Fold this protein.
Amino acid sequence: MSFATMIRASSLMSLMKSNRVHHVRRIGNVRNFTVKGGDKIGKPKTLTNFPLLPLRVVEHPRTVAFLPILGHAAYLSLAGGFLCTDVLSLRIILVCGYSGLVVFHALHPSPLRIPLRWTTFFVLVNAGMATILILDMIPPTLTEEEEELHIDHFAPLTRKQFKTLLDLGRREIFTDGTELTHEDKPSHELFFILDGAVDMTHGGVFTSRLRRGGFPNWMSFQRTGWDPEIDMPNSYGTISCTGEVNCIVWDRDDLKTVLVDDDMRQRMNHVVTESLIRRLL
């Protein structure tokens, strides 16, 4: 006789000795106990035990022996989560721990429904969050042109950050003589030159020429610390296209959706700094 069966037999004998058990019936995996006394209107009460799994499984000696081991392992797994600093690892540990508790409750002859339902809910929540984290870690797919652009000019950004930044921008082709910025007037668009060249003048005097890989008006954005809440300063000079120029253009309002992140702002500073160094070399 298994330990669980002995416990139920002992409980039943206690009820019978107290003269409260009126009828005992077993149907499949369900035992019904009709108890004398009933409710206020005299209707007999029925205490019902619903195992989730067949009795031959939950009452098997190996199952009974395995339950304490499973319970301890599940709670040790949850305790390990308190020592975990990585979010993804924490989610995976919680999924394992709560999954163990779900099995632990399900293998009982009379499982407690409330803990079983809540642990199942916790498994689903943590599994969902772990899935989101894993998908977020998967690098986006870049075209051959985008891959080259990332390596040559946006290497400080992660592939995901670069793809997000690229999707925010729009490509425009400017004709010869088009002014990208005007001296002493704020510019609310950031330009990156893909092809062509632009000239910068200050006070009507030529100062420099920028080609592919340059950010003509990056200083205005960097002076604000890439903070979208700070008013944009006036442009240092007038930047005009020399011939046809192909650019990626970002609106400042669009950039603020990604530049709110400190890590992204710091990486963008590295991007424009490297661009400046390439010009000097």
